[in-house]
Amino acid sequence: MLIPGCLAVLGVSFLSHGAYMQVKANFAQYLIEQAWNKTLQDQTPYKPWSWADTHPVGKLMLYADKETDVYPVGDPMFVLAGASGRNLAFGPSLMLKGAGVGEVGNTIIAGHRDTHFSHLKNVKKGDIVELETAIGQIQSYLITGIDIVHETQTEILDMTADNQLTLITCYPFEDLSASSDYRYVVTAKQVNHS
């Protein structure tokens, strides 16, 4: 009787922790969206909460193309400055090694596979990614590559002469472990600049 009771408590605690992480990630995106909207008004970075050590630097949207019928994949995601472990808990984050949002080069954004970047498993070559800059400019990218690489393959972080967007998350998507040696990498080339 003691063992089944302990197992039940342990199971509930695991489920509660998972639900807490999802709620935290979603509520944080709401607060980050409020800061983003202020940023768009006067191009000044705003923190999503008073103790934050980051601010939103972009708005990311994935679109699937089903025979020219384009539709969104998931909700818009607000990108934070600096891809630290703390920032990734709240949303996709810009890796400082790459180009900034709206700059020429390889803009690299990382996100967790079980929250904000869980939708990456549903995109394919030819789909569209839009990235809005802090001055309201929307850049469209065409997905040209999807690769699974070992975490030691850091050439995906190299700068490029053209405008490229690289989205990175851990792989496999349904893995229950907290860490992984593999990365799911979506590469997209800029197709317009408005």
Descriptive notes:
The protein is an alpha+beta fold and about 190 residues long. It has a single domain (about 1-194), classed as Beta Barrel (Sortase, Chain: A). It is built from two helices and eight strands. It has helices at about 1-40, 85-90, and strands at about 55-65, 70-80, 95, 105-110, 130, 140-150, 165-170, 180-194. Strands 1-2-3-4-7-8-6-5 form an eight-stranded mixed β-barrel. A hairpin with a 5-residue loop joins strand 5 (about 130) and strand 6 (about 140-150). The radius of gyration is 18 Å and the shape is globular. It starts with a helix and ends with a strand.
Could you give a short description of this structure?
With 194 residues, this protein is α+β, with helices and mostly antiparallel strands.
The chain-level mean pLDDT equals 87
Low-confidence stretches: none
Strand content: 35-45%
Fraction of residues in helix: 10-25%
How many beta-strand runs? Answer: 8
Outline: globular
CATH C-level class? Mainly Beta
Task: Record the SSE blueprint.
Layout: H1 2-42, E1 56-66, E2 69-81, H2 85-88, E3 93-94, E4 106-110, E5 128-132, E6 138-150, E7 164-171, E8 182-193
Parallel strand pairs: 2-3, 4-7
Antiparallel strand pairs: 1-2, 1-5, 3-4, 5-6, 6-8, 7-8
